[in-house]
Amino acid sequence: MYFENLREYVEALEKAGQLKRIRTQVSVDLEIAEILRRVMYDNDGPAILFENVEGYDIPVLGNAFGSLRRLKMALDMENFEDIGERVTELTRLKMPHGLLNKFKMLPKLSEISDYGPKSTGSGPVTEIIEMNNPTLDNLPILKSFPNDSGRFITFGITVTKNPETEVRNMGVYRLQVIGPKKAIMHWQIHKRGALHFQINKEKMQKTEVAIVIGADPATVFSAIAPVPEGLDKFLFAGLTRKKGVDLVKCKTVDVEVPASAEIVLEGYVDPAELNTEGPFGDHTGYYTPAEPYPTFTLTGIMMRKKPIYLTTVVGKPILEDAYIGKVIERAFLPLVRLFQPEVVDFSMPPAGWFQGMAIVSIKKRYPGQAKKVMMGLWGMGQLSLTKILIVVDHDINVHDMNDVIWAVTTRSDPKRDTILIENAPTDTLDPASPLLNLGSKMGIDATKKTREEGYERPIQEEAVPDEGTVRLVTSKWNEYGFGQQNTI
Ligand SMILES: Cc1cc2nc3c(=O)[nH]c(=O)nc-3n(C[C@H](O)[C@H](O)[C@H](O)COP(=O)(O)O)c2cc1C
């Protein structure tokens, strides 16, 4: 069953023993962040609700999605690939021949229309509306690391509209608070919010935005997910939770937000108002240096009477965002396969902060196919930011680093099988790239080489035991005095 809002999810977490309430007074200044990081590093630590935050009367929720177990609850699914399957199913829908078959399609079509967002006049988020003197001062916004340049909203969902297509978007971009009505918007250049801002900037226009803090889990997930361009993320959220999201209009900007959100900050981002954002202790494990970013101005606040402030903290992996990244990796595999059908599996190891490295296994049929897959993936959405791509054969388990290293060291020759591409887009946060947003890529073709690919030596046969001996040894295993062993 889907969750309509964040608090229903919190209740479910508590019932499942997955939530800890902390009633001791805690500070937004470094203390909460340090507690959250410790709990997150401790594999499978619970979600935490800080109920007594010094100086604020709003509780803070952290680590809400910090385990695969919780994410399965949050999205109500065992297999995250279902999400991608639902999206690819849309691309496969074709009108059948014959009246009867058309009738058979009707339930499917009505199911899909049920996933779309619906506008309503009001909702829990409109319980409190402040348009006269809205302020960020009442929100328990955290400072996370000692050398952070200030306090950051880290889990706000920024809602924008593409000025040309009107397609709505949601993206989680952090905001550094610099005054009661001002915060710096850290939408990186490759992201969709930054694209909408750029289009408006060329017309000398401000970008209207709403920042949603705390929403139903599917909406939060959709804001982080690299959804294909042109697909409304509210529709994606509906597809994820199999129920459309109810939306209400903001009061001071022309933007719609989830009616059941906890807190909504309304305002605009002005291209003429740049400020220096950072340093910020980031999910690479390093402080991202200060850079200029545009500024958000607050024009209104809508919120529930007793809102929950949803937050997260980042730092050297593996923290909460790594689990969300794992779900994205699984959810998007069907979409990767849609464009690269030879792909069998795909992994973005969390220690590589996701954009750092990806490993993909393929069913290879023709020479050079691994390179074709690399080029395809580097051309797909946010995968264009992946720095190192390793392609292996389908017999390699991409989630087992020993298996991957074995493939790289036995099936690739560095000179023949490595490609380097200079001056390519790279993740804004990449601490090693020579320039901001521009670096090189490395592709390692660790698939078995064929004659056509220039492998002149006799192809070496993999050394594996014969079936008869395997059966014999397995059947006599107890007799040898070793005790039980899994059969092979
Ligand atoms: C906790 C968290 C914080 C994030 N902070 C930022 C950020 O400050 N800037 C940014 O561009 N992306 C950030 N991201 C990644 C984006 O949310 C993600 O790339 C998303 O797909 C962007 O959506 P878009 O392509 O629709 O813009 C963050 C993700 C998470 C999970």
Summarize the structure.
The protein is of the alpha+beta class. The chain has helices at 6-15, 31-41, 68-75, 81-92, 99-115, 192-202, 217-224, 233-241, 320-331, 333-339, 369-377, 401-411, 414-417, 467-475; strands spanning 19-22, 47-50, 60-62, 118-119, 128-130, 152-153, 157-161, 168-172, 175-179, 182-185, 207-213, 246-249, 256-258, 263-277, 280-281, 287-288, 291-303, 309-310, 343-347, 357-362, 388-393, 418-425, 438-446.
Walkthrough of the structure:
By secondary structure, the chain is an alpha+beta fold. The chain folds into three domains: 6-68, no CATH class; 77-310, Electron Transport, Fmn-binding Protein, Chain A (Pnp Oxidase, Chain A, Roll); 340-453, 3-Layer(aba) Sandwich (UbiD C-terminal domain-like), CATH 3.40.1670. Helices cover 28% and strands 24% of the residues. It is built from 14 helices and 23 strands. The protein has helices at residues 6-15, 31-41, 68-75, 81-92, 99-115, 192-202, 217-224, 233-241, 320-331, 333-339, 369-377, 401-411, 414-417, 467-475; strands at 19-22, 47-50, 60-62, 118-119, 128-130, 152-153, 157-161, 168-172, 175-179, 182-185, 207-213, 246-249, 256-258, 263-277, 280-281, 287-288, 291-303, 309-310, 343-347, 357-362, 388-393, 418-425, 438-446. The strands form five sheets. Strands 5, 6, 7, 8, 9, 10, 11, 14 and 17 form a nine-stranded antiparallel sheet that branches. The chain has a five-stranded mixed sheet with strand order 19-20-21-23-22. It has a four-stranded mixed sheet with strand order 1-2-3-18. A hairpin with a 5-residue loop joins strand 15 and strand 16. The chain starts with 5 loop residues before the first helix and ends in a 13-residue tail after the last helix. The model has no long low-confidence stretch (mean pLDDT 95). The chain binds flavin mononucleotide.
